[in-house]
Amino acid sequence: MFRGAGLVRFGLALSLMLSASFTWAADPAKTTVDKHLAAGEFGLAAEAAAAVENPAAKSQLLEQVAAAQLANGSASAARATINRLGDNQRATAWQRAAQQAGLSGGAATAFAVANMIMTNTTDLWRDNGTGDGTISTWGDGTAGNGVRVDPNGLLAWIAARDNTGKLASLGGQIRRADLNADLAQPSRLRFVSLKRLEREVALRLEQGLPIPESMAQFAGLTQVQYVALDQAEGDIILGGPAEGWQYIAPGQPVGVSSGRPTLQLDDFVVVFRAFAQGAADFGCSINTRDAGVKALQEFVAASQSRGPINANSVRNWVRQLQNKLGRQDIVVWGVPADSRVARVIVEADYRMKLIGIDKLEAGKAIPSYFDLLATGPQKNPPPMEALRWWLTMKYDAVLHSPDKNAFEIQGSSVRCLSENQMLTAEGKHLPTGQSEPTNRLFAENFTNHYAELAQRDLVFADMQNIFDLSLVAALIKQERLADRSGWNPGVLAATGTYRPAKHVVPREIDSVVNHKVYNGRDIVVQVAGGVRGDLLAVVNDPAMTKESKELVRLNADAPQLPAGRWWWDAAK
């Protein structure tokens, strides 16, 4: 068994790139770029550089822009600028931009970590054949193992070993974010003003400046506990625990003290727009193809007709099962398939399935289905059925003040559900609404020990954060909080100019099959299921939403803040 992690992948053109100096004449394009950079207009500078036709000049100008962005503390914006180059130029361009920026720690260290990953995984880069390369980052940051989406949308579980020893040193290169003294301090309750935050984001966009870390990481919030209206200010305020953050390769921000991922502005904008536009829920599903299931059943029937399988042939037989089943389709609904939200829920779903079939370790508290089967009461192996597991939100309650101007989210977690589905001769799945004891026990263990799993594997903590932000978005929609408070979402609205980062869309996945010899027979576990975030069901459930007079005393009013400040601490 092996642990999963993220991996940075690029396309790599099969040709040599010669490094050469380039001497500038009086070039109007460079003059334009220089003027934009001097004015802090990085977005306009990048556009001007990208419009240059001469490849060498274009590359050098984009490197200049990226270096300026790095020096300004925005590695993500610099990465986007370098991505405008072709696959076979990016690695060298990164290095030269880093040298121009004069890396000496601080904000640029995140770039140094990303650059180190790139230079140490060149043997894993891949050409997609289109000329449109991409960076696909997945998982908890240990390059070499993880979930990957290639440029054509194929999700794959990969295992590769770094023999250089260089990647192992990345753990020592995590850094604390470059924060002012106040923002770096842990707080039991930090408030974020959506009105003030939107105003500052809009100002940065108007000036062509990158969104700073503090905004992208929601001021270090690791959870949302409170939602409050400030009708006097026309504002909606979110509150929860917060802390300074650090980056673990390849760029995952986590709290310095808790180790939990921070909330992401991109994620909030994605789910806020989804619910504002009428989405009832969102989720993903990894679905087998009918033809593959039918071919699998026919292969098993033919094998059984020939009698017992020779022990020496079991592994080959299992490989044939996997080949017969073929690829499965990844379906995402309710949110853009190219959003970070989609990537996180797909990865969490996939990892859950790997845990279930004993391909990924989740700790002693969450044994695999196979482990449970060995200790269960069954005297015969289960029939050929599809074992379905899927993840959904879990909350103890959503409390609200009598006037519904303040809300408290209690008991945030994630629930794993299970079902045994029948398979028809045509390979179709038929829901039964039933789950046999061993299947149900796996789901119960997954649910009951989700907190430990989320601490062990950050993608599950990330998904919990997405559910929390989605519940906030559902509350804003269902309780008409924007209308009642007078808050204008502005650039964060569905028609707004803020653009969350786009990622490669996962479309299909190779089936993963595991086996266990049980009573002299081989058992094959079918993998299917998904993730579903039905947050409107939570806010509409009378058993979940309860009045609390205690919330009347919640004081979320903003104090006198410095110009440009959009967050404050109510409790240390």
Plain-language structure description:
With 572 residues, the chain is an alpha+beta fold. The protein folds into three domains: 28-173, no CATH class; 181-277 and 545-571, no CATH class; 282-393 and 410-476 and 500-539, no CATH class. Helix content is 36%, strand content 20%. The chain contains 19 helices and 21 strands. It has helices at 28-38, 42-50, 55-71, 75-82, 87-101, 109-120, 181-184, 194-207, 213-216, 265-276, 290-305, 314-325, 340-356, 369-375, 437-448, 450-456, 458-478, 481-485, 535-539, and strands spanning 145-149, 154-159, 175-176, 187-193, 226-230, 235-242, 245-248, 252-255, 282-287, 327-333, 386-394, 397-400, 406-410, 413-423, 429-430, 508-510, 515-518, 521-524, 526-533, 545-547, 567-571. It is globular. Mean pLDDT is 72; it is low at 1-25, 102-179 and 522-529.
Give a short summary of the structure:
The protein is α+β, with helices and mostly antiparallel strands and 572 residues long. It has 19 helices and 21 strands.
Please state roughly what percent of the residues sit in beta strands, choosing from under 5%, 5-15%, 15-25%, 25-35%, 35-45% or over 45%.
15-25%
**Helix count from the secondary structure assignment:** 19
Q: Can you tell me the overall shape?
A: globular
Q: Strand pairing plus helix content: what structural class?
A: alpha+beta
Helix % is 25-40%
Mean pLDDT: 72
How can the largest sheet be summarized? 9 strands, mixed
- Low-pLDDT segments: 1-25, 102-179, 522-529
Per DSSP E runs of 2 or more residues, the count of β-strands stands at 21
Termini Cα gap: 42 Å
Radius of gyration from the alpha-carbon trace, in angstroms: 25 Å
Overall structural domain count: 3
Q: Spatial order of the strands in the main sheet?
A: 1-2-16-10-9-19-11-14-15
